[in-house]
Design goal:
The protein is built from 13 helices and 17 strands. The protein is of the alpha/beta class and 514 residues long. The chain has a single domain, classed as Rossmann fold. Helix 8 packs antiparallel against helix 9 and helix 10 packs across helix 13. The longest helix has 20 residues. About 4% of the residues have low confidence. Keywords: Glycoprotein, Hydrolase, Serine esterase. GO terms for molecular function: carboxylic ester hydrolase activity.
Length: 514
């Protein structure tokens, strides 16, 4: 039992880490009021206290409303703004443990931060001396977070592109959760002055948005970006208002007046709204449709300018940063094409340019586009360059170069006749536990898993990533001396030069600069 001052008591449960260590789990704790009725398409409101009652946090809360693209099912509920806290020590009389806050990815339209109903189990992190937190936030037009499966919702990022509905509600949910963590994590043995936010894919881009946002200033102290940046072509919405109009048409709502449109959409059935994904989905993850945007219509914008311009003018929260990528990010698209018995591949073959334009969010492409370079590498590399130039704190850069026994390719059931290892999100299988995931048995997988956990948790402690499994210290990258850590089992190394793709991506920077 834990007492949270000004909120009330919570009853959790006990769980066991991968190494057999007991820890406490407090799951499904509300950090904001349910975003239903008049609170739909509005900024989050802090959760009401439950003083005098005992809140049952012994099991996970529900995922947010979303459309599961693979199963073609609608899942979840709107009342989903909760977080999960995992801790080994409830003694809050001392300074507290470093706090790692996972912001799940998934194109801002799918999944949740849960460890049972989704993939973000705490088993590995709870072998370390940290407090681990995950969160749910509104997605798409209706709300949630993400797993590796393909799902959709819409409230989190719907926008009429005016002051009636500026958008970015999912990011504001995340900020509300971070504020809750800052104010209450000491009750769970965590240090509110040592909070590290991290995420993969859209979760990493979300982390980058918090670095850029004045709303999140002071709510975290370090940041880790795994395969995502706000500069990525898929990370910032350019047509959110257009998709909002399409959603309005889908419900026969008035189109000419934003207030009337929103009044109508607030009354729309949540499940049917989640089902809107069926009408616009072309390629599982794409189009993202409802995502973050520059919300200057808001009295106090979450994102007051383009990410690149904010970084170049040093208008961001300067904190130590780890940023990196996987060696074969673009394999994600191939895996999507080959999954579900190649259903999407057959459609792709009929009109490949249509799908490539959709993926890279541009009409100006060549047929031989390299997805890794355009959709990931060039923007991730540029964001690291900007950090190394303008960030007052250290910036650490890495390439994940390991081939593990369990990968996204295997998860999706794609034939192993093609080597698509090192794909987007492959590293998370070595960082998070789940009942459906096999235990790590390969000595190389175990080594790389420990290496990642060493680096992430020591960075969370004092801003310096360290591991005895590395042959030398990981030194920050510099504007005048680019360098990166190559993370692998056999020959991990600090490489004192630009990434191997650096010269190749200059093509995209000149041809398709947005």
């Amino acid at each position: 039992m834990v007492t949270i001052p000004k909120l009330g008591q919570v009853r959790g449960s006990k769980m066991v880490s991968v190494a057999g260590k007991m820890f406490h789990a407090f799951r499904g704790i509300p950090y904001a009021r349910p975003p239903v009725g008049d609170l739909r398409f509005r900024d989050p409101v802090a959760a009401d206290p439950w003083v005098g009652k005992i809140f049952d946090a012994s099991r996970e809360g529900p995922t947010c409303m979303q459309y599961h693209g693979n199963l073609r099912l609608i899942l979840g509920v709107e009342d989903c703004l909760t977080l999960n806290v995992y801790t080994r020590n409830l003694d809050f009389t001392n300074s507290g443990k470093p706090v790692l806050v996972w912001i799940p990815g998934g194109a801002w339209y799918k999944g949740s931060g849960n460890g049972v109903s989704n993939a973000w189990g705490p088993g590995y992190f709870m072998d370390r001396d940290v407090v681990f937190v995950t969160m749910n936030y509104r997605l798409g037009p209706l709300g949630a977070t993400a797993a590796i499966l393909f799902q959709f919702s819409a409230e989190g990022f719907l926008s009429t592109e005016d002051s009636e509905a500026p958008g970015n509600y999912g990011l504001l949910d995340q900020t509300m959760a971070l504020r809750w963590i800052r104010d209450n994590i000491r009750s769970f043995g965590g240090d509110p002055d040592s909070i590290t936010i991290f995420g993969c894919s859209a979760g990493a881009a979300s982390v980058h948005y918090h670095i850029l946002s004045p709303h999140s200033k002071g709510l975290f102290h370090r940041a880790i970006l795994q395969s995502g940046s706000s500069l990525n072509s898929w990370a910032i919405g350019k047509s959110v208002g257009s998709y909002t109009q399409q959603l309005g048409q889908y419900f026969n709502c008035p189109q000419s007046n934003s207030s009337e449109l929103l009044t109508c959409l607030r009354k729309a059935p949540a499940r049917k709204m989640a089902g809107f994904r069926r009408q616009i989905q072309i390629m599982l993850e794409y189009p993202i449709a409802f995502g973050p945007r520059i919300d200057i219509e808001r009295k106090s914008p979450f994102l007051p300018g383009h990410p690149r311009e904010l970084m170049e003018s040093k208008q961001f929260n300067s904190v130590p940063v780890i940023s990196g990528l996987n060696k074969n990010e673009g394999a994600l698209v191939i895996l999507m094409l080959l999954s579900n018995n190649g259903e999407l591949l057959r459609k792709f073959n009929k009109d490949p340019v249509k799908y490539l334009r959709l993926v890279v969010n541009s009409d100006d492409i060549d047929d031989d586009i390299i997805f890794s370079d355009y959709a990931f590498f060039q923007d991730l590399d540029e964001s690291v360059e900007l950090f190394s130039k303008y960030n007052d704190e250290a910036t650490y850069y890495y390439m994940y170069n390991h081939t593990s026994q369990f990968t996204l390719q295997r998860f999706l059931g794609v034939s192993s006749s093609l080597d698509l290892s090192g794909s987007h999100v492959d590293e998370v299988f070595l960082m998070f536990s789940h009942l459906i995931l096999p235990r790590l048995r390969s000595s190389k997988d175990i080594k790389v898993s420990n290496m990642l956990l060493d680096l992430w948790t020591t960075f969370a402690k004092d801003g310096i990533p360290r591991s005895s499994l590395l042959p030398q210290d990981w030194i920050p990258t510099k504007e005048e001396q680019p360098r990166y850590l190559r993370i692998e089992a056999e020959h991990p190394a600090l490489v004192n030069e630009s990434m191997p793709f650096y010269q190749r991506i200059q093509y995209w920077k000149h041809k398709l600069r947005r």
